[in-house]
Amino acid sequence: MIPTLEWLPEGVSFLDQTKLPLEETYVLATDYKQVATVIRDMIVRGAMAIGVSGAMGVALGILRSTANDIETLNAEVVAICDHLAATRPTAVNLFWGIGQIRDLYDALAAANTPIPEIKDAVVTRARQMYDEDIAACRQLGDFGAELLPRKGTVLTHCNAGALAACGYGSALGVIRSAVARGHQIDVFADETRPYLQGARLTAWELMKDNIPTTVLCDNMSAHLMKQGRIQAVIVGADRIAANGDTANKIGTYGVSILAREHGIPFYVAAPWSTIDIHTAHGDLIPIEQRNPREVTHSNGIQMTPSGVAIENPAFDVTPARYISAIITERGILRAPFTEAIRRMAEGARPAREILEAQTI
User: Which CATH superfamily is domain 5-137 in?
Assistant: First the structure.
């Protein structure tokens, strides 16, 4: 399994994804501010990995605190959470991960739990979340596997694999599960400009698993769809609104339109923690704007004229009407997504989801 991040006695170790695929190096974050830098600079990336990283950052901050009383520690925890929350605005998993540790801390502090016991508890919870993320990805992979063709080519955009999680992955987890069941799957990986997550990361990890992979420039998929060379599209997500609208890496929206035009199923794979039931629809999802240098330069080499205006939104939103199904570890959601998400949030799985799960 690819070691995306790991809790160590010294701190949290991260595989530096900015150096892949040419170098496999690690960055050690020994305090919460360093964890925040790792998240902001995309040394670690992907909604699921960011969520657990945020949780570990809060736990690390509490663990490293020298506060001798709860009042002082309370103030520190607020600052820790705010600092980590300011790193990346779109991936709701970040705020979920921070919230998991914050809620546990608040409950323990309110119960007058001794500070050493609080530290042990938050570290234990953060490490549990790592294991839970891997289990969730494997479960959603099993749910989604049968949606993929027994033999054919699947297109994916960006990287929603083990590198975007604690292991296994969401969209690539579905592909892995399908291959493990005997499906003969080839993968087309969009390069995913401007950060090239598909070309650098998706191709790297699928090649490690010996899954046949071809990298495409982002403007090639329509041509291949027209030729009948793509049988399904599967992507991850950074935030899914209560109506099913889905924020994912910039360019995903365009791929969804192309898939609809060519009659190709378009699947979203993400853990339940990526669904934001408090955001009614996609227009309310904040879209991160990143450094123009990601567009103007490639591998440190300037590619555009000096002074030209640059747009660099990191994400776009795919309307729910273009999504064939949303695959989670709780089951498969289908339209109407507002109702399906509401029922799943309440713990009631629609009959067709239960039947689908039983056939897998």
Answer: translation initiation factor eif-2b, domain 1 (1.20.120.420)
